[in-house]
Fold each of these.
Amino acid sequence: MLIVDSDVLLVERQLRAGQLGCPLCSSALTPWGHARPREIRGDLGARLFLRPRRTRCSGCKVTHVLLAEALWPRRADVAAVIGAGLEIAALGMGHRRVAAALGLADGTVRGWLRTFAGRAEDVRRHFTVALVALADDPVMPEAAASTLADAVSAVVAAHRAAATKWPHMLTVSRWEFAGRAIGGRLLTSLSSAI
Ligand SMILES: [Zn+2]
């Protein structure tokens, strides 16, 4: 799996021009059909239908699915919605209040929070390193009330540093930025998951 821009036409052009590199060996990826269609919940209950592009490496011959940065592997909601839930949870709210705030089922949000809690230390470390690399004078976020909140703070700080360095990053939501920066592994550690 490779996380790519959310602009489908741009990605198709990049793919056909051989500009997308294999995550394993860096050779050019080539078009290789599509993955199964998926239905995704967008902001405010919007329903989106997607057919992720499947590709094959011209070097190692491994196939990779291209996943838009607006999505995370194995999740039915867009990154911005899941990220909003993580930010609300970081304020100390439980999964039921987060679910109510987003208008989603308790079980969906409980799944995100459980998984993210298990990934939080890795996520915090990854984005703390990114913050140090991106900022000229990095200011570390203060320790928060939970590892989940620390991880959210690290993502927010790294996105802010990226947007200071590259203003076009302001047009990318911090959770899309985060998904792309960590290869979609915010809510899964499986590199091939989709
Ligand atoms: Zn390859």
Amino acid sequence: MTGLDLRIHWRSMRIGVAGVGRIGTMHAGNLASLDAVDEVVLFDPVPGRAAAVAAQTGAKATAVDDLDALLQAGDGVLIATPTPTHPETIRRALSAGKPALCEKPIASDYAEMSALVDDIEASGVEVLVGFQRRFDPAVAELHRRIRADEVGKLYLVRSTGNDAEPPDFGYLPASGGIFRDLLIHDLDAVPWLVGEPVVEVYASGSVLVDQAFADADDVDNAVVMLKFAGGAHAVLVGGRHDPLGYDHRIEVLGSKDSLAVGVDSRTPLTSLEPDGPKAGPDAYPGFPERFHRAYLNEMAVFVDVVAGRTQNPSPARDSLTSLRLALACDESRRSGVPVKIEQEVVV
Ligand SMILES: NC(=O)c1ccc[n+]([C@@H]2O[C@H](COP(=O)([O-])OP(=O)(O)OC[C@H]3O[C@@H](n4cnc5c(N)ncnc54)[C@H](O)[C@@H]3O)[C@@H](O)[C@H]2O)c1
């Protein structure tokens, strides 16, 4: 296809959004803010919800009554429905030949996800997974510098991911636990940054925030150690309560440089050094604020993938890697010993 053909074909770009609850509403607003998007078409099975969100999203947004109409109207579809509906909704997008961006996780268990990934790849239709760290401009720049050998030989990666407040306790039993629910984002992002197979996982956790986590057979603070094939280690920490706000940072130390993302004037961390940063009232309250630029960029990249202007930076197969690592974390946390990743995880 020539550049001229592209311009004619994408004279009018329409993106469908399936599911306009918390995250779907945010994505719809971000899509509507993009110059490259002419129309945002919304569907939600709750009567009146899509029309109400369309009204608040602005002139570019319209509502339709069913998924078939959405798939027909959109050049691509963003899937922000509850997790159990993801496999079927993705397969409907594949049948319609419409590229999709699906919120994580694309499926709840490994066997289901594995079959789905095979179907996605057999279809030839692009499906991006909404792991927003990959789309964060600073994380993407870190990825670029590592690939460009500007960091040198990697020694250590450290990531921190603390929620400000625990989720509703009713959410816990179906959440999959802290590794599949919270740390899954970093189990995706850190191996993606390092670019090597993980060969060993060790995980530990404690209940320090609320007994409800123990009642759900979960922990509320966890530490993960990943060992990579080249010998570098990563330490991932995550927790369900941070009194100062939502804190996500990644630090990378290599033979040529030492870099951090997520360290800025809104980081909820107080340095005790006289000239160090102090957490203030504008510290990030939650993930939507911390990852605002990432979510916006995620939509811009999705539109570029739909238009054939760029490659998919978050393919479905990578979700198998992070899920497998999360399951290994569960096993290690319960057994108290490291788990070898027998078949190398290819990133
Ligand atoms: N990437 C992230 O940071 C992030 C953050 C939050 C949620 N999520 C993921 O996003 C997904 C949605 O989470 P949420 O918190 O917005 O949930 P939500 O319950 O607030 O919204 C889901 C919406 O989907 C609608 N819906 C239900 N079945 C549908 C169907 N078959 N077709 C179309 N719409 C349907 C519901 O009526 C509801 O409006 C989940 O998979 C979750 O894991 C990702």
